Amino acid sequence: MAETPLVGRGGVKYASRDKSYFEKRGLQRYAGVWSLWALGVGAVISGHFSGWNFGFATGGWGGMLVAGIIIAIMYLGLVFSIAEMSPALPHTGAAYSFARTSMGPWGGFITGLFENVEYVLTPAVIVTFISAYFGSITGIEPAYYPVLWVVFYLIFLGLNIFGVALSYRVTLTVTLIALAGLVVFWISAFGHMDFNRWALNIGVGPDGAAVELPEGNGPWFPFGFSGVLATLPFAVWLFLAIEQVPLAAEESVDPKRDMPRGILLGFATLVLSAFMIVLLNPSIVGVGSFALSSSLEPALFGFRQIYGDAGATALGVVALVGLIASFHTILYAQGRQVYSLSRAGYFPSALSITHSKHKTPHVAMITGATLGLVVMLVIWFANGGGGDGETQLGDDIIGSVLLNMAVFGAMLSYIMQAISFILLRRNLPNIARPFRSPVGIPGAIVTIIIAAVTLFYQMQDPNFSKGVVWVIVWCVVGIIYFAAVGRNRLILSPEEEFALEHRSKA
């Protein structure tokens, strides 16, 4: 294999590769606007079935609503930024690519490392929700949940590996089913609402913790503005992973036209769905914000109050499909994220080899999925192998470790992407931008501020340290590898060539 040594800025060394290197790493263009829309919505939709509702315990109903609005503003700035950057830099690397061009190889790698934490661990969080819903529907004992994790990983890795067209068809189908289920839920809830009695049934006890108000009619903000801020990390779950859409740039038929449309249509869909679920789910008679604050199955809980156990089973299946939609699409993103860093030499280049027939990054997907599954199993058995069932699963594994780790990585990557946007606007004002963010640099600055505040309040959770320590270890190991090995083996991938070319013109 021919190599041409090249020394780059930041103490890195490049080697160009001949055609055979990239022929073994080819992708297939398939995705249009609606495929990209489904990729974004499908990645997030599980968060409308589970996870967001824990914020009622820290902010009450009003706190959850305002936190959701603040987080939506953060994501508005983010999605406008990536909607501008992704067609201007239409590479699979996405966040890494943006940061690589704006901040050099070290900035690109660190941004990619933060995003890697999110995409390796978010499927692990979602598959724990899947096992909880599946266990509720079938009655399977929590002790068998690890078997379910392995089975779901195998099934959806297979669907992702055996062709990009198949993967996108599955994504679109399960996303539409999940959204249809949510619409049925909203319509059903409208006839069974008592907002003041049930949504406002949280007060503050003598110890400062949430208590249930039997007659409802409590304050909108029982914990004040500090409660709103403490709820921000939970509101993130209503939008987490919409930013993965640019990872499909090299599989998009026309990324310069379709990427901004797919991203923005997906975000608009999620804003509507988030508002409806936050308003309606706790307002259902017999549900309430207090009960939802500790529920692993908030939508299923609400549907059960309306239709009873028999009807709830139907929504339980639809909710399961919604969770599967997110699991499937984030496995897709995980593969492309690892693939892009590997193809450029930041990760071992063997990880970027694509399937000879299906042109999917199967090695990257299998490696990332295996790592996520191993992390899950280690945490599971370290916490007693499930302990007392759902409580152990929800509180220790999801809330304390995996979910916090995924959100921590995401917030850091958002800050880096917003900084990348600002630097690209200032340092490369003349690159072709098929779409320009209407909120520009001020919108990116707002994204940085809200993400930083969210991180601060996430760290106020005493259980947070269980996750953040391991994220720090993950990043330190990655940086040591890059400093010792990776920086000497970079490859002129499309992201790297674009960055080097335009840095020389800046």
From TrEMBL:
Q: Which Pfam families match?
A: AA_permease_2
Q: Which domain of life is it from?
A: Bacteria
Its keywords, alphabetically, are: Cell membrane, Membrane, Transmembrane, Transmembrane helix
What is this protein identified as?
Amino acid permease
Q: What is its main location?
A: membrane
What is the protein's membrane topology class? Answer: Multi-pass membrane protein
One GO location term (cellular component)? plasma membrane
Is-annotated flag, keyword GTP-binding? no
